[in-house]
Design brief:
heterodimer; A: 262 residues; alpha+beta; Uridine Diphospho-n-acetylenolpyruvylglucosamine Reductase, domain 2; Uridine Diphospho-n-acetylenolpyruvylglucosamine Reductase, domain 3; Enolase-like, domain 1; 3 domains; 5-stranded antiparallel β-sheet; 4-stranded antiparallel β-sheet; 25% strand; B: 161 residues; Ubiquitin-like (UB roll); DNA polymerase, domain 1; 2 domains; 5-stranded mixed β-sheet; 29% helix; 16% strand; elongated
Chain lengths: 262, 161
């Protein structure tokens, strides 16, 4: 890892100011970024550590909207969101391993947009809003592709606002070496519709599986997905699984999620 | 270089670190606390697990600067005040929960974190909690058995001698 200066702001305003320095890079929990720095895939001059910003931590519920601060760890979401949004808390409780969950944050995960990360599926599947130091971005406009988001240079994810669905479930087929999903699906059912979001599968990162949404809108049952196929040509193909295998898993994970909701 | 100060195993510790200095490096190379092992250096293996403000973290994936002002506990601080093994360490010895011993500091620190939040875990809960701690010798059975025993539960029915 090349050396860098570290800034430790205690407010969002201080973090934004620190991000004005040349080649500055924000870091939340660092559970992806530190390994990336070690591999010399990133070499910032200044690392702006967001871990000391108390105003970006915590979970609160108001008017059916669950607000999660960008600096809230996975472990904290698992504990504090359980009473309000069990499917989201359950997802957070199964990211990585306990030590990673004590450092990694929702803001870091959403800003990085790893094509196999868990949180993007919940954010897109819930139709959540990503809040930054500058604006609010709807999930449908936020995830632009593998490791690509609508964030501008230096923009910081300060929180995510989740509408809480009537019922939801996250079903994950884990890739045991990395503990990332090989394929995982988040299904959320609202009074006015439903959403199906898939992570781990596509070359374009997290996506809504609209064919499944249409089939489930007519008949919310696992059987409604018989014969509904995800497009294998869009899928990641690597040593862990072919595109065809992942496309098959998309269907199976969606069925399991639907069955779990009942 | 930046001056960092923290409390390690109840004692004040300080040193000069670079921005990139990892907590694991600071503990091992600056403080001489080599019980915190670096196995994979990629946050997979868990040999470097320590507690920062009471929470288990992988010391190879946290900057020393981020621990400035924190309370850090390592394997060196786990023994009882008279120097005898604590209940978890003793259970690892009694139940043959280690062979080469490389992963053991991380296993003991993870076990301590688990038992703090869940004093009587089931076998399945222990195995799930050890997701991020890799052992290449034991096959895990005796580690799980040791942690169950340390929690005060009867382990005679647990398989794998």
């Amino acid at each position: 890892m090349y050396n860098f200066d570290v800034e430790r702001p205690s407010t969002v305003a201080e973090a934004v100011a620190a991000m004005g320095r040349d080649e500055a890079q924000p870091m939340s929990g660092g559970q992806t970024l530190i390994p990336t720095l070690k591999a010399r895939l990133a070499a910032p001059s200044v690392l702006v550590s967001l871990g000391g910003i108390e105003e970006m931590k915590g979970v609160s519920m108001a008017d059916g909207l669950l607000s999660v601060g960008g600096g809230t760890t996975h472990a904290a979401v698992a504990r504090e969101a359980a009473a309000h949004y069990p499917a989201l808390a359950g997802l957070a409780a199964r990211i990585g391993d306990p030590a990673v969950r004590n450092r990694g944050t929702i803001g870091g995960s959403v800003a990085n947009n790893d094509p196999s990360a868990c949180y993007p599926a919940a954010v897109l599947g819930s139709g959540a809003t990503v809040v930054t130091n500058q604006r609010e971005i709807a999930a449908d406009d936020y995830f632009l592709g593998m490791f690509e988001t609508a964030l501008d240079e230096g923009e910081i994810v300060t929180g995510v606002n989740f509408p809480v669905p009537q019922a939801a479930h996250y079903e994950k087929m884990i890739q045991p070496a990395s503990r990332f999903p090989l394929v995982a699906v988040f299904v959320a059912k609202f009074s006015d519709g439903l959403r199906v979001a898939v992570t781990g599968a596509s070359n374009n990162g997290v996506f809504r599986w609209t064919e499944a949404e249409t089939a489930l809108a007519a008949d919310f049952s696992a059987d409604a997905l018989n014969g509904v196929k995800a497009d294998a040509s869009e899928m990641i193909s690597d040593l862990h699984g072919t595109g065809a295998y992942r496309a098959h898993l998309v269907n199976v994970m969606t069925k399991r999620a639907v069955a779990a909701i009942g | 270089m930046t001056q960092v100060k923290m409390t390690v195993n109840g004692k004040a510790a300080s040193g000069e670190v670079e921005g990139r200095t990892l907590l694991a490096q600071f503990l091992r190379e600056d403080q001489g606390l080599t019980g915190t092992h670096i196995g994979c250096d990629t946050s997979q293996c868990g040999a470097c697990v320590v507690h920062v403000n009471g929470e288990a973290v992988k010391a190879c994936t946290m900057l020393a600067i981020e621990a400035d002002g924190a309370n850090v506990d390592t394997i060196e601080g786990q023994a009882d005040a008279d120097g005898s093994l604590n209940v978890i360490q003793q259970a690892f010895q009694d139940h043959h929960g280690l062979q080469c011993g490389f992963c053991t500091p991380g296993m003991v620190m993870s076990a301590a974190a688990l038992l703090k939040e869940n004093p009587k875990p089931s076998e399945a809960e222990v195995r799930h909690y050890l997701d991020g701690n890799i052992c290449r010798c034991t096959g895990y059975h005796n580690i799980v058995k040791a942690i169950m025993a340390a929690s005060g539960q009867d382990v005679s029915a647990i398989a794998a001698e």
